[in-house]
Amino acid sequence: MDLGSVARSTGAEWIGQVPHEPLAPKSRPVVPAHDSFHRPPEGFEHARPGTVLRSRDVEVAFLGFIPQKFTATQLLYRSTDLNGEPQATVTTVVAPTERADTGPLPIVSYQCAIDAVAGRCFPSYALRRGAKAVGAVAQFEFLLIAAALAEGWAVSVPDHEGTAGMWGAPYEPGYHVLDGVRAAINHDSLGLSPNSPVGLWGYSGGGLASAWAAEVQGAYAPELNVVGAVLGSPVGNLGHTFRRLNGSIYSGLPAMVVAALTHIYPDLERIISEHATDEGKAMLARIERMTTAHAMIRLAGTDMASLIDRPLEEVLLTPEVQHVFDSIKLGTCAPTAPVLIVQAVHDRIISVADIDELTETYTRGGASVTYHRDMFSEHLLLHPMSAPMTLRWLRDRFAGRPLRAHIARTKWPTLLNPSTYRGMLTLSVITAKVLTGRRVERQPLSRFDQ
């Protein structure tokens, strides 16, 4: 199937339209699996990708209980799965309290590190007031979403794993991201236009989803004005990451990927069924209900070799597993939009060698790549510390400023850059306002990183 043709084909603009749902501030949200809003109307598959199927206003809250003074709208929209079949998912679009000064309103699609199968980790649930999502990374990433809003930009936060939490699936996270932007542009009340410049931003699992969006955008959504993509520690090679993290304190992450991928690849499910012990099968079933932090704590130090009846390397080298590893690896296509890749050299979760390889693949394919290869930071620290640089880079792309010549090499570390700390002061002010539920005015973090 030519997904680019599908995206551009004519079709119904609005299928199974239902009334816009007004804000219900005192209602406690339910998880997506039990929320009728997430169920697409009959006939939705005939709509074009990006068609808004349903909308509602929601209250967003930090950690689920500190209400925020942003206007947030959730959109259920038609998208596509990795096989080109129709699928529906949700994005939460948040409007800035004060928009950027001139030109069409920019929009950033921020991909959270969902890194779980459980619906409690989906941003459409975790960001809402009243959500019980302890251990969902999206709740903490709201601080960086707020920083993008303080730039005067709209922010789309998609459930890029789809309705079933397909963590690690190839291609479809990109489709979900891009169709979420289409949906936001199609929804008139958000004040966006087809000319709105689009930026992509994500880190770790969110960086992986952003990378898939950057790779497929040229063929799938060429009409979108994507001007830049920030790929923070974007995993690169999930097969290598599985071997790297298995048996470590981070072993819950690859275990959750396996749990999700068994629903995508029937041959992998058969391998698990044949060789996993009863304890291993029970663990995979339990992990699908856990939040990211819960799984990491519960499975810290777990070696998957202890949960199968064959040597682990023997199972990993089977054609079925190798096919999965090959198909979920990034680098299938060079992005058409400029990309900024941010990666720590001493990252204990994502191998810098894998990101070096991805950067070289993109560069050989003709992509415009800026590579910040940070010497001092590690995985968790680099995301907030690189925020001023990231937002400045996106601001320059939105303004149409030319890119300089770039070489993939180790950069002056963010920890030794004075502008990082000036930017972090502003981020601290934004954080304080989020923590106290105060209005976040336009206060660009990026202005300190020149």
Automatic annotation (TrEMBL):
For this protein, the record's Pfam families field holds: LIP
Return the InterPro entries for the record: AB_hydrolase_fold, Lipase_secreted
Region (Disordered) residue spans: 1-50
Any single GO BP term: lipid catabolic process
* Gene3D superfamilies registered for this protein in UniProt: 1.10.260.130, alpha/beta hydrolase
GO MF, any single term: triacylglycerol lipase activity
- Domain of life, per UniProt, equals Bacteria
List all Basic and acidic residues biased stretches: 35-50
Q: What PANTHER family does the record point to?
A: LIPASE 5, PTHR34853
What this protein is called in its record is Putative inactive lipase
Q: Which organism is it from?
A: Mycolicibacterium vanbaalenii (Mycobacterium vanbaalenii)
